[in-house]
Amino acid sequence: MNRKKKINDTLKSKAKKANAKLHSSNKPKYISKAERAKLELDAGVAEAGVEAPLPDSESESEPVPAPPHLTMPSGSSGWPGQA
Among residues 23, 40, 22, which one has the least CA distance to residue 31? Predict the structure, then answer.
């Protein structure tokens, strides 16, 4: 029984692989991070007249408040469980 099962499994797997080769994937081809950066630079060189505006120096000097879920309640001394 094991011999028959093993033969059937190998035949099924070969048929499945052959069937999978017939159908092409809709997934786009992978482009590496370095290649994407190179494409961005090439696109930036092509659009040399268009430059991104520089951020205002005033907005960078203002501190950004921490989100409320990360701030400690008033009267807290630190870690939970510490007095």
Answer: 40
Q: Is the pTM of this model over 0.70?
A: no
| Distance in angstroms (rounded) separating the CA atoms of residues 25 and 17 | 14
Q: What is the pLDDT of residues 33-70, one digit of tens each?
A: 999 999 999 988 877 655 555 555 555 567 777 776 76
d(Cα 39, Cα 45) in Å, to the nearest integer?
Answer: 10
Task: Classify 34 as helix, strand or coil.
Answer: helix
Helix, strand, coil content of the chain in percent (nearest 5): 50, 0, 50
CA distance 51 to 53: 6
Vertex 33, ends 28 and 35: CA angle to 5°? 80
